[in-house]
Amino acid sequence: MAKCEICGKGPMFGHNVSHSKRATNRMFRPNIQRKRVLINGQMRRVHICTRCLRTLTRKNEQ
Length: 62
Description:
CATH 2.30.170.40, alpha+beta, 19% helix
């Protein structure tokens, strides 16, 4: 599973907890996209989470 190359966010682990409180393993996966992004004046193809992508586009608008 890929990690975000900007913030380092990757998959996290936890439990599904049923009504009877039985815990089974589960995985929380971040929404990672492969995008072309302008970093330090050059276009790079990176694995980036949607939160970082949103932040980058907001910074570029201003």
